[in-house]
Amino acid sequence: MPMNAVYRGPADLPSTLSLFPLSGALLLPRGQMPLNIFEPRYLAMVDDALRHGHRLIGMIQPDSAHPGPDDKPNLFRVGCVGRISQFAETGDGRYLIQLTGVARFRVEHELAADTPYRQALVSYAPFADDFVARKGEREVDRTALLRALRDFLEANKLKADWEGIENAPNEALVNALAMMSPYGPAEKQAMLEAPDLKARAEILVAVTEIELAKGRTPGDAPLQ
């Protein structure tokens, strides 16, 4: 597999993926996720991904509503495959990597693998639009998204690089805000499984408005 690989569609990705279950972690196509790898099974996963050359790892969340056994929790059916785009050794047995999201996948069934990490047969076909960068950007209500972001920042006394935000394309903005959002696994999964960018932005705005409403005391004026 060449450096800076280009994935044009489902056929460019393997049907078998190693799985990295991580609650609250949301990876989206073309988004970037830093990871600190220290468990032996996931160190082995990274080693294998690099050794085999594909450098791909399937990020997926445990399904907390149906937890299953502690040593093998049940997983949601939809995750996102990421490519190791940065790699560093720490000198104390850890890896620092960055995954760049490629496309979402649906788990068809888990495999009886002899590796210390879990593997599954997956399908990317339901998410073929993920391979088209910036698809659906025009349908995003950017005004509502930025208003919700501003209200959230003000309510939490946080600052942001507004120049960078204003210049960001809609896909990058929606996906970055979704990935960085402080919401729980269920909300993150809903954003992951959103059918398109417009729906993902709408979920993000709705969840933000709900959280802001929870934080208001009686008599507070709604944020505008």
From TrEMBL:
What GO MF terms are annotated? Answer: peptidase activity
Domain called Lon N-terminal: residue spans:
17-212
Pfam families linked to this entry: LON_substr_bdg
**InterPro entries (alphabetical):** Lon_prtase_N (IPR003111), Lon_prtase_N_sf (IPR046336), PUA-like_sf (IPR015947)
Q: Which key words tag this protein in UniProt?
A: Hydrolase, Protease
Q: Which Gene3D superfamilies match?
A: LON domain-like
Q: For this UniProt entry, which residues form the secretion signal?
A: none
A GO BP annotation: proteolysis
| Protein name, UniProt field | Lon protease 2
Source organism of the structure: Rhodoplanes serenus
Q: Which gene encodes it?
A: lon2
